Amino acid sequence: MGYNVYIPLQPYHGLNDRRGMALNDLTAKSWPPSQLESVDIAQGLGKQVTVSGLSGGGTLASWAAQERDDIELTVPMAPFIGIKLVPGVLLNKGFTNLIQILPNFYRWWDPIQKENNPASAPYSYVGYPFRSMGEYMLLGFSAMADAAQEAPAGAITMVINPNETSISNAVAKQFVRDWQAHGDIQAELVELPDELNLPHDFISVTRPGNDPDVIYPILLPWLTGSN
User: Fold this and answer.
1) pLDDT for 8-33, tens place per residue?
2) Cβ distance 159 to 222 under 8 Å?
C-alpha cells in the first residue's frame, strides 16, 4: 500500500536461545531508550508515523502514545498490561507489584509440548522467566498513570479481542477511558468480531487457525486511520 514499515528489535529479544533466558535481564527501564530511538527512526521514513504492536508490543505502543508528541496514530492491539486471570485494574496493579518480589522461575508457553509448541512461531521464544512479564505490566501501568494526568498528542485506536485468553481487556478499556477523560481526544476502543473466536496472537501468519485473509482486512482500516 506504499507504507514504509519499520520493525524494531526489542531489547533481549530475537536471540538464538529460543528458551528466552536473556529476558532475565529485561526491566521496565530497558524499553524507553529503544522506543524513543525507534520513533526517531520512523520519523525519517515518512510524513507521519503510526505505531502499533500486539501484546507486549501493544504495551510499548501505548507507552509511546503517551510519551511522544509526534505520533500521528497509535494502534495498540491486546496490550499486555494486566492478565485475564486477575480481575480488574486494581488487583492487576497489586499483582504487578507482587511479581517483583516473588521468586523468579521459568515458564513454558506450552508446559506439555515445551519446545515443540505448535503455536510458537519459528522466530519466537518458547518460554520466559516469569518476572520478565511483570516488567511489561510495570511499564504499562506507568503509562496509564501518565495518561490519567496528561492527554496524548495523537489519535489512538485500541484493539481488543473479545475471546482473549491471556491479557486483561478490563485494563485496556480503563486505559482508553483515562485517555477519553481529557475531553477532545481522538481515542477509541474497537473489538474484533466475536464470532471469529481468535486466539491472543491474532496477527501471526504462522499460528494454527489464523487466517490473514480474514483478519488483516479488519485490521488495516484501523492501522491506516481509514475506518
Assistant:
1) 999 999 999 999 999 999 888 888 88
2) yes
